[in-house]
Fold each of these.
Amino acid sequence: MISAPVIDVERLHVSYGGFHAVKDLSFQVRPGEFYALLGTNGAGKTSTLEVVEGHRAATSGTVRVFGQNPRDRRAVRPRTGIMLQESGFSPDLTVKESVRLIGKLTHRTDTVERVLDIVDLRRKAGTRVSQLSGGEKRRLDFATAVYGTPELIFLDEPTTGLDIQSRDALWDAVDKLREEGSTVVLTTHYLEEAQQRADRIGLMHQGTLHREGTVAELTRTLPATVRFTLPVTAPAPPPQAVRQSDGTFLIETFGLQKDLYVLLGWAHDHGVELRELEAGPTRLDDVFRSIGNG
Ligand SMILES: Nc1ncnc2c1ncn2[C@@H]1O[C@H](COP(=O)(O)OP(=O)(O)OP(=O)(O)O)[C@@H](O)[C@H]1O
């Protein structure tokens, strides 16, 4: 049996005056899924999520969250954790008071101490929000997504301003939430984060869903690449390698393993050191760059 989607968006339109920011958008997020909604600037991601989160009414179309209208805050809010780009905690509250407030607003059960540990702010429990650093504020924003282990979590640019340790800690916490069964919706401009973690990606452009699928599905139509440089004394490399204007060699291939094998065999046979060797599947960046080219 296929379980009902957690989020069901059908033919959504969002207009601002005469401007159509979201046009005929449909997508679903399934229980336990990690879905990344990505897109070019001004694509309509925020407008879409504002409707899904219940902050904005759709101009037309249907949006259901847990089968309910997301504007019905009482039905949806207790099951949902939303980490906005700016949560807008009162600057005069302490960290501990802010986390306690999250508990009151969400009506979920948890302990402030547990949440402070997860977002690594226990040492700052008595500090006022106004005195937190940018990264600490961001971790406090994340507490809204953690408190009471909500069934559905929205993460809007969650790692912006976080150092690498805090990023790793945040993703570890997200992994744990997923193990508990939480569904995650991510928006980010850090494509690598989506590429590494998302089960599926929706790629928006100019108000519509330009592409949707797993990373493998999205990158399948573009070739993988191998790049390297050679010492000046090296003989000509295999013909698949094309010399670029900056002096590097590039192989674009749909048979990465085979072409890499040929290249490494050639280097070994000729006693040549391949310098700055990089080989990898197509990255999501390349899919983004191809938007607008067809
Ligand atoms: N309140 C508003 N009034 C008028 N136009 C708006 C309003 N909010 C957004 N827009 C426009 O709607 C379009 C989509 O905006 P939206 O913020 O949803 O895109 P986005 O995908 O989140 O963009 P970004 O990645 O740049 O944050 C943009 O062209 C934006 O200028």
Amino acid sequence: MRKVKVDLGEKSYHIVIGSGLGEELQRFIAAADFSRKALLVTDSNVGPLYGQQIKSLLQEAGLCVELAEIPAGERSKCLAVAESLYTKAIELGLDRRSPIFALGGGVVGDLTGFVAATYMRGVPFIQLPTSLLAQVDSSVGGKVAVNHALGKNLIGSFYQPKAVFMDLSLMRTLPKREIATGMGEIIKYGVIYDPDFFSFLEQNRQAVLNLEPDAATHMIARSCEIKADVVSQDEQEAGLRRILNFGHTMAHAIERETGYVRYNHGEAVAIGMIGAADISCRMGLISESVKQRLIDLVERMHLPLLADGCDVDAMYHDIFHDKKTVGGKVNWVLMTGIGSVICRDDVPEDVVRQAMAARISQ
Ligand SMILES: NC(=O)c1ccc[n+]([C@@H]2O[C@H](COP(=O)([O-])OP(=O)(O)OC[C@H]3O[C@@H](n4cnc5c(N)ncnc54)[C@H](O)[C@@H]3O)[C@@H](O)[C@H]2O)c1
Ligand SMILES: O=C(O)C(=O)C[C@@H](O)[C@H](O)[C@H](O)COP(=O)(O)O
Ligand SMILES: [Zn+2]
């Protein structure tokens, strides 16, 4: 078992990483000051696999738990589904100390966190991430949100969980495509922070894709350490935290233009990272060979290099809804090498358009 601390003063919490974490979770609940009534939110794929098992664990720990199942998929990350969860919470009589647990991927985590942040102005929230992407990224750091028809994650808050329990054994049912999806965000950590981690991924590609225990534990723990380090220094994205958004300016435009269904988030991030590397190259910040190293790793992790169903004008329009766009200026996270990035708000329109055109299937 590994533990990583997210150091945020009174809001600090631990990420617990291991296989079969039931007892750890029960000990945490026993020590917490929660009301008895609790809500466990999951989705229609994860619920049938693990819903009852986790519900029983929580009941054994003394909670009176109701299971709420939302339809699987990004489309559920919306205000209408959030409202159905508020209704459930009110009907169950959840009070200000009632914990809400998110059991699932990033969709369940972001949506449930948003509900926990806003129901009665905030109730305890615990992340039980089950997808690779959720374990390495979305369950950590407290960004909670729902999507709006006009853009990704546009309605949200910063709301930290009380704890995160990552049980690697729950990922044995994860489809291969979802493992590759998680790799999109994992590669990001190598690019923005840690060249040795990037090399580790290059050298252990098959072991990490197979989620072999040692390789997977290192990959997940190192990703969490990097995210925890960044978030601990800049919880609300005043500066440094922007680097966690590497690849996301184009990714969010691709997701919006394809209705949030054609590409998984981590796939869109993979395409967006190459787009950002391309801009970096055109701006003279990196060489072609550095960009190619990223392209090679993305491709070898079975992630897409090009987006179908997008056009440059629409994507260019979308980036002005990005949260890093301030005063009409888009803040791009660009590479200066493998392991280092900078923010630039002076990328010319034609450079952005050329890089976008290069990422679109013709
Ligand atoms: N808050 C953040 O910091 C942050 C960071 C990264 C991504 N995100 C968000 O996370 C979302 C993407 O998360 P995701 O990739 O986990 O998508 P997801 O939640 O849709 O999960 C992917 C698929 O895998 C299934 N699944 C999950 N765990 C499983 C398991 N153990 N066995 C079998 N199937 C399982 C789900 O039902 C779903 O069909 C996006 O909305 C993205 O914007 C948020
Ligand atoms: O935690 C962060 O900070 C991130 O940017 C992580 C991203 O991987 C994640 O997709 C996040 O939800 C994007 O945030 P947004 O603020 O661009 O919506
Ligand atoms: Zn992301």
Amino acid sequence: MLTFIGLGLFDENDISLKGLDAVSAADLVYAEFYTSRLMGTTIEKLEALYKKPVHILLREDVEQNPDWMMAAKDKNVVFLTGGDTMASTTHVDLRIRAHDLGIETKLIHGASIISAVYGLSGLQNYRFGKSVSIPFPYISARGNRVVTETPYDTIQKNKENGLHTLVFLDINPDHGYMKVSEALKLLMEVEHKRNEGVMENQIAVGIARAGSDDVCVKADFAGNCGNFDLGGPLQILVIPGELHFLEAEALVKLAGAPDCILKEE
Ligand SMILES: C[S@@+](CC[C@H](N)C(=O)[O-])C[C@H]1O[C@@H](n2cnc3c(N)ncnc32)[C@H](O)[C@@H]1O
């Protein structure tokens, strides 16, 4: 049996009791932390809680050579991830691979950043369009710095349909954890390059450290990048589309957005 377990949002105590029982009963424990991280804990703390070793998988172990899962044919193997267990396509792919190998699978869910965003911002889940990820800029083969423009386009398309965009921020071994302020600067860079003037006067919502006691939620105009200094990681960004009056009220009262967004209604 291969059991996929979501660890929740912040530290070792965010796992469900069901999840903890499954880890305690497991013969082998694997985890990946490249799609998300639990910033409030360490591998040592997880191992102390589970009373067994946790084997950390690299991206290639998960996406290219998941041969470790063969043990699940006759053992209880658990696979741990930050957040919920199936919130990334990678994990669905892994489950399908297990199915094709004749391995039985089971899911034990955890709190996800996706639903935490709705609660923390007051933005309603049915008003979100396609989500997007912003990667760190990279240097092309010709030596140019390249800023990916797809996130900007997706945000504009969602906005045309009145929809909000959830923007995941890059976690990268070389660059670290992207912050909301950096993401906004990258979006603004695309905007200036295209000479379009919509982003600056657009409300943005930044959320940092969801699930911790130190959670921070801030809404302001995207042009005020300096007001989005939210402290440490992890961070996530939302670019709202049309605001329902309750959503606008929540952003003003719960996230410090300027009052003028209420007058737009
Ligand atoms: C690709 S998503 C993976 C989502 C995860 N499987 C889940 O269900 O929560 C990871 C991104 O979500 C955001 N994120 C995840 N946990 C977060 C947290 N506790 N607070 C703020 N942002 C978070 C970050 O932008 C991070 O790079």
